[in-house]
Design a protein that fits this description.
alpha+beta; 3 domains; 11 helices; 12 strands; about 50% helix
């Protein structure tokens, strides 16, 4: 019972964060659609029955719905919230309505409207991180060794808690995360590490221990381990005129790390246990909210990047799936057949449902059996 009460409180910041990100995403679709003369019937935060709403002068119904785990923009000619074409309705449309339907716009206009949602999430993340980097600073882990893991090769080599890592093989080191990247990519290769101890600069050579993971195809993947941990957090403050550049760099790095991690899960080089769903995100949102508004805002920017990135995956029913169909149309010179698109949406639905079931199962295992 205590767990469900806690989860209920944790859900409040999660739903606030999710609603903001969904609004940003759908607003991207909406604004570019209106710019291209597309009519929008519904702008909804959440799914299911309407709680309350209003109509604007353009005839769009803006509403809040019962189930706040998402949202949608339903345009003229859409059959549902996933923007599936209503073929029968489209064929019976009069000329003036066709001019307001997304499906009668040029393929490049359709691409622009579809891509606007994920792009809005990325731009929102850049804005949020730019403000944070200029006011609070960019968070990073100081490259100071705090603790050692069991059988640590670094401890055996002579490193001690409190050692401040300055250089690795002559390359300056700014963050502990950079040390992790270098070590993981250098299995069984000696590293010359310059560090500071009690005001004195010292150098030690250490060879990362090899950790081997075999993927689903039987191929081994090697990574290096030093067995050290860093926990001291610091912030780097940037001027307003350059904070956007560092924010963009951070977002691109986050995107690449996410794609790489998913790729590792797919080929079996990394366990899928870390793949979380709504329950895990709700739990993390609540825990981060307790750390303060700054941490929650940073987490919101991270989720915005992930929301934009996931929607770009070429899975039918997601924006990326629509973009895949449109680019096929560009190459072929004509749209894919209705049958092909119908099967694509069915496959996409099953993939998304399967992923949600798997992620939710992971959440329950993580929460109850951690």
């Amino acid at each position: 019972m205590d767990f469900f009460i806690t989860l209920g409180w944790y859900s409040i910041p999660f739903l606030v964060v999710l609603s903001v990100l969904v609004f940003v995403h759908e607003l991207g679709h909406y604004l570019v659609a209106r710019y291209n003369g597309v009519g929008v019937d519904v702008f909804s935060i959440g799914f299911g029955p309407e709680i309350f709403g209003w109509n604007d002068r353009a005839g769009t119904r803006w509403k809040i719905s019962c189930f706040p785990l998402g949202g949608y923009v339903k345009m003229v000619g859409d059959a549902d919230a996933a923007s599936t074409p209503d073929v029968v309705k489209l064929q019976k449309m009069k000329k003036d309505m066709r001019e307001r339907s997304l499906f009668y716009k040029t393929v490049w206009q359709r691409i622009a409207v579809t891509a606007a949602g994920p792009l809005a999430n990325y731009l929102f993340a850049v804005l949020v991180l730019s403000v944070l980097f200029a006011t609070v600073g960019q968070r990073y882990t100081v490259p100071i060794i705090q603790t050692f893991q069991e059988d640590s090769v670094a401890h055996t080599a002579g490193f001690q808690a409190g050692d401040y890592i300055k250089e690795v093989n002559g390359a300056p080191l700014q963050r502990f995360e950079d040390l992790q990247t270098i070590v993981q990519g250098s299995p069984d290769q000696p590293l010359n590490i310059l560090f500071e101890r009690n005001g004195e600069l010292l150098t030690l050579s250490v060879t990362p221990k090899v950790s081997t993971i075999t993927d689903h195809f039987g191929r081994p993947h090697k990574m290096g381990l030093l067995g050290v941990r860093g926990t001291e957090i610091a912030y780097t403050l940037y001027p307003w005129w350059s904070s956007w550049w560092y924010a963009t760099t951070e977002i691109l790095s986050l995107s690449w790390q996410t794609v790489k991690a998913l790729g590792d899960v797919i080929i079996g080089a990394k366990s899928a246990e870390g793949l979380g769903g709504p329950l895990r995100i709700a739990q993390m949102s609540g825990e981060i909210a307790q750390s303060g508004i700054i941490s929650l805002v940073w987490f919101m920017a991270l989720l915005s990047v992930n929301l934009g990135l996931i929607n770009l995956f070429p899975v039918p029913m997601l924006d990326g799936g629509h973009l895949l169909f449109y680019f096929c149309e560009v190459v072929r010179g004509k749209p894919l057949s209705e049958k092909a698109q119908e099967w694509g949406f069915r496959i996409g639905l099953w993939l998304i449902m399967g992923l949600m079931v798997f992620a939710t199962g992971n959440d329950l295992l993580h929460i109850f059996f951690k």
